[in-house]
Write a structure and sequence with these properties.
399 residues; mainly alpha; Cytochrome Bc1 Complex, Chain D, domain 2; 2 domains; two-stranded antiparallel sheet; 4% strand
Length: 399
């Protein structure tokens, strides 16, 4: 081999080495350019308050709460008198229900046996039925005074406060309204029905003393909201742990808590309700119960971070109800962090960076689920009235 050949080979090697070095530097600089969120600590979580805050214009009273309970279970509020609030928000399912998306108007049966009557032209409810339990704390944040008048409601935060939320299902076609009335006329119809029932006249008068004509839409919403604020579960083992009981969680559950923080779950599932109450685009698959894809209120496939409390009772999960178990939810996030998008309508640049940057590993999932189960508290009120003032079937057409 002559000197020219040796020199040529040496230059070629140096060129290849330079290219490799520059490539590595390029990849390193790209990675460094992505700002990774800080690892969260337990300080971003919190125990729930043991008492509820009422809005100034709707203080709770026993009479108002009991009126709200009866209204919640009475199908008199629906267009066809066949659906109650409790039809889709059932005590045995944490005031949610075990369906991907609910069947409201023109349905029969309860739980997984509920189905549409035939013939039927009513669609499924648009999204998975969220639990009403602990909605008295929606929007709560660590270190901030709680204002129930601006509490975000629904999967898209379109309502503020339980009072505003209470009337919207009554006005929604597939949930409670049906064909017979429009969203402009249904509340007038419902109020008229309540006014001719003697027991409701008495109960509204007792709940709203001093009003000459207390049966109207605003007081209907106030009574329902007052009852819903009693549906709380504030003494889970996690709450006990955060209040100072170091033995409330086992060693493996505490390990699951640390993994929950380390993997990035708490960047969105934070505060006492384990939710930042913000909208995030995650690429969750659509439910097959609807032909059209659900792009959300802003048409960007972003939906609110749900609470993680009492998850044992609220499967299936996500706004579309497409994920059946907690284990699969965590596997979904593992897939997201690996670049997989489950909804074909969502593009990579739409995905929320906080989800993409999560670090969930299969080996950690069982421990995290073990921790999540410490957020369950079964001590909430499950009382169902034996009758309602209208004389209609309690919970609506569920048998």
């Amino acid at each position: 081999m002559n000197r020219f050949t040796i020199s040529y080979l040496l230059c070629a090697k140096l060129l290849v080495l330079a290219l490799l070095t520059n490539s590595c530097k390029s990849r390193d600089s790209t990675q460094k350019g992505v700002e990774k969120p800080e690892e969260q600590t337990i300080a971003v979580l919190g125990a729930l308050p043991q008492y509820v805050t009422d809005p100034p214009d709707n203080p709770s009273t026993p009479q108002k709460i009991e009126l709200g309970r009866l209204l919640f279970y009475d199908p008199i509020l629906s267009g066809n008198k066949d659906v109650a609030c409790a039809t889709c928000h059932q005590p045995e399912f944490n005031y949610a229900e075990f369906l991907e998306t609910s069947i409201g108007v023109n349905g029969i049966g309860s739980g997984s046996k509920r189905h549409f009557l035939s013939p039927n032209d009513i669609p499924f409810v648009k999204r998975n039925s969220q639990s009403i339990l602990n909605t008295a704390f929606n929007g709560i944040r660590n270190g901030e005074a709680y204002d129930p008048t601006v509490a975000p409601m629904f999967w898209d935060n379109r309502a503020k406060s339980l009072e505003e939320q209470a009337l919207l299902p009554i006005m929604t076609f597939e949930e409670m309204r049906g064909h017979r009335f429009t969203d402009e006329t249904i509340l007038e119809e419902v109020v008229g029905r309540l006014r001719v029932i003697p027991e409701y006249r008495t109960r509204f008068g007792e709940a709203f003393k001093g009003e000459r004509n207390p049966i109207h839409a605003q007081n209907l919403s106030k009574a329902l909201a007052a009852y819903e604020r009693t549906l709380i579960a504030t003494n889970s083992r996690f709450d006990q742990y955060m209040r100072g009981d170091a033995d409330a969680l086992s060693a493996s559950e505490q390990e699951g808590l640390q993994l929950f923080l380390k993997t990035g779950c708490a960047r969105c599932h934070s505060g006492p309700m384990f939710s930042d109450f913000k909208l995030h685009t995650l690429g969750v698959p659509d439910t097959p119960n609807h032909k059209e894809s659900d792009a959300g209120i802003n048409h960007d496939y972003a939906f609110r971070t749900p609470t993680l409390r009492n998850l044992r009772y609220t499967a299936p999960y996500m706004h579309s109800g497409r994920i059946a178990t907690l284990e699969r939810v965590l596997e979904f996030y593992e897939d997201v962090s690996g670049g997989e998008i489950s909804n074909p309508h969502v593009k990579a640049n739409q995905m929320d960076p906080l989800a993409v940057q999560m670090n969930v590993s299969f080996q950690d999932i069982s421990r995290i689920v073990e921790f999540l189960n410490t957020l369950n508290d079964d001590s909430f009120d499950k009382t169902v009235p034996q009758r309602v003032p209208s004389g209609l079937p309690v919970k609506g057409n569920v048998n």
